[in-house]
Amino acid sequence: MNIDLQKIRSPFFIGIAGAGMSAIAQYLQGTGKQVSGSDRFFNEGKAGDIKEKLEAGGIRCFLQNGAGITPDTDLVVASTAIEDTVEEIRKARALNIPVMHRSELLALIAASKKTIAIGGTSGKSTTTGMLFDILQQAGMHPSVISGAGLVSLIKKGKIGNAFVGSGEWLVIEADESDGSIVQYRPEIGVLLNIEKDHKELEELMRVFETFRNNSRLFCVNRSNMHSAALSANPAHDFCVDETCTGVGFQATEFVQDGFHIAFKVNGEPFGIRILGQHNMENAVAATAAAVIAGASLKDAAAALAGYEGIYRRSQVLGEKNGIWVVDDFAHNPVKCAAAIRSCQPVSDKVVAWFQPHGYTPTKFLRKEFVEEIGNALRPQDEIWMSEIFYAGGTTTKDISASDLISDLKTRGKNAYFVEDREQLLAAMDGHLQPGSTLLLMGARDPSLEQFAREIYHGL
């Protein structure tokens, strides 16, 4: 589709409450366009405070009924979840308004800036947020379009997943789940890791190979054997495995003390208020990309010392009655396992709860969920699950979270199923004691943040 972004004045977003959609909408609003949008969660009253924050930023919000699209609308943007049968798509077609997928628009935006694209199965949002902070520390005034809110921006009353800076650099997440990552041609491409998620490994390798070929400079995690195979220049690569040789950015001396991690990158000491070795990997990736872009190791260390985190990424809600509560976006097997392991140095016992999302992805990854979570659990740890979150659309409901729990029980794990998550605290009575950490995991469901806070206050 041949769209001149400079000539677009009044774009309309269908599904604007979604993390990816709201970020691009806010970015365009910040560049002077008059943005509007709708979401079915507005119809259902399930969007939390997203609608209010969008409207506070000047974006007009509508129910998903077609009323927001007018002859003045010059572009309609649809998320992956929007089907052609939606009333607003039909209305846009009838008015001859061009309809563009979210990723196509992001590709146009990325082409207008010096872009650093963060790709990989896990850690994209955290790395994006860390990199944004480092570039700010270095005085480069970056822009960002992220899949999750930065706490530093949320504190200013924003959704936190987009910011328009005055500099030439733009940091974006590059999503492989729908294949859209191949549309970007970034100045710097960063590959964090590759694991089975959404697609089989063979297909993912092909997708990320195209991402590498489309990037002018490419930086990969040599600690991950799949991403290491796509290295373009070892001098741009990073590694957290001390057996690596010849890489440009080497992490050493990792230590976790409670909710704080420390390590060195090329001898420079780093300390961050965050959980887990996987977040050291994210930090080193952000550091590598920032240095390639012109920042220094000292800029990176100084920025990350004050890093405030990402919404629902290892987000510590607090301690109550001797129990720590951590809210996390983990939703694929590797992420869930990493989140569990990151909490283990903090407490004698981790009680993890997970709400899978989507029947098809849960069925696709059933074996991997059981293996990764089962391997991460210590004998005293527990895993709880509630029923799969259904976001709507056409699907076959031929699997339940109880099936994963049954598989884990067969492996001798402390595994429990509570179909209705509203019954979770009552069911956990006696399982949580002072010294425990309660880890809450899940994605896509916009009510999870509120649920986590209700659990915390209910302890």
TrEMBL record:
Residues 118-290 form the Mur ligase central domain. Residues 312-444 form the Mur ligase C-terminal domain. Residues 13-113 form the Mur ligase N-terminal catalytic domain. Keywords: ATP-binding, Cell cycle, Cell division, Cell shape, Cell wall biogenesis/degradation, Ligase, Nucleotide-binding, Peptidoglycan synthesis. GO terms for molecular function: acid-amino acid ligase activity; ATP binding. GO terms for biological process: cell division; cell wall organization; peptidoglycan biosynthetic process; regulation of cell shape. This is UDP-N-acetylmuramate--alanine ligase. The lineage of its organism: Bacteria, Pseudomonadati, Bacteroidota, Chitinophagia, Chitinophagales.
